[in-house]
Amino acid sequence: MTSKNINKYTGLLSKALLIALLGAMILSSCVPMKRIRYLQDEKGAKTEKSDFKNKDTIVYRIHPGDNLYIKIASLDEKSNYFENSTNYNNYYTESAIYLNSYTVNDSGMVEFPLIGIVNVDNLTITEIRDKIQLKVNEYVKNTVVVVKLANFRISMFGEFHLPGKYVVYQDKINIFEAIAMAGDMTDFAKKNHVLLIRQTETGSKTYRINLNDKSIMESDLYFLMPNDLIYVEPVKGKQFAFTEFPYLLIFTAITTTLLMIDYFAK
User: Fold this and answer.
1) Domain 34-57+152-234, what architecture?
2) Which end of the chain lies in a sparser environment, N or C, as judged by fewer CB atoms within 10 Å?
3) Measured distance CA(266)–CA(253) in Å, rounded
């Protein structure tokens, strides 16, 4: 074999190995679009459904350890007797809201100024508001009672761009709003097998959610509850792309092969 032929063979081999390496890298790190898209139609569906009835019938009931923000609004000066004696400059920070809230004790009670101890265990926010309103009306007329849950938090971890614990300043939040708070999921998120961990009276309960399927919007799990934890695991392709694929070994083999061909060509 002449030197010209060897050089030609070396060039072709180099290009082939380079193309093979690039192809392997692309294939190993590629995630199918089907796994990336949210809210797809069910498999085999012939028509696209566009109307969904959200199930938000599940109402959170207060448990011991919860914190309630309670405010009595009235033009009557007597309403000041119901105010929390502690004041903070920045009233709307998370710490201030917590410190100005009322903690439900182990017996399910809260102690409110003037009206005393109120049993709120296993009641909804609306039921607690109405209960306190009746007691306040015995002392002051024309008042408005405001009750909010001060510890509505959710935790998002795993394949999120911004994982962490988030405070929700509204009565309810659906799972896609929560995902948006966490900066959306990464392309390697396993969206069809999301783990939801929910606290119940008897302990923690786990659920699996398929966010690729539009029917999630009709699920009881569409709206989140306080203290929910959402974990999104990565697809297997991510581990293969970043840890298992032997890039260094292939690169070393290509370099060694090219050096040997160059050596024998001389």
Assistant:
1) Roll (3.10)
2) C
3) 20
Fold of 67-149: wza like fold (3.30.1950)
Instruction: Determine the straight-line distance between the first and last CA of the chain, rounded to whole angstroms.
Output: 12
pTM tops 0.85: no
- Give per-residue pLDDT as tens, 213-247: 888 988 989 999 999 999 999 987 665 555 445 55
Residues 122 and 161: their CA atoms lie apart, in Å, by 36
**pLDDT digit string, tens, across residues 78-130:** 656 666 555 445 555 667 777 788 999 999 999 988 888 999 999 999 999 99
Q: How far, in Å, CA of 264 to CA of 266, rounded?
A: 5
For 173, other C-beta atoms within 10 Å of its C-beta total 20
Domain ranges of the chain: 3-31+239-265, 34-57+152-234, 67-149
Q: Cα 161–169–143 angle (5° rounding)?
A: 180
Same fold, 34-57+152-234 and 67-149: no
Closest CA to 155 of 191, 182, 185, 177: 182
Neighbours of 236 (CB within 10 A): 11
Does residue 114 come out as left (phi exceeding 0), alpha (psi in the -120 to 50 range) or beta?
A: left
Check if the beta carbon of residue 18 is closer than 8 Å to that of residue 181: no
Q: Is 28 exposed, middle or buried (0-12, 13-18, 19+ CB in 10 A)?
A: middle
Here the tokens at position 88 are: 């903070």
b/e for 148-166, b at 16 or more Cβ within 10 A? bbbbbebbbebbbeebeeb
Q: Where are the beta strands (DSSP E) in 74-216?
A: 102-103, 109-112, 116-119, 144-149, 153-158, 164-167, 194-200, 203-209
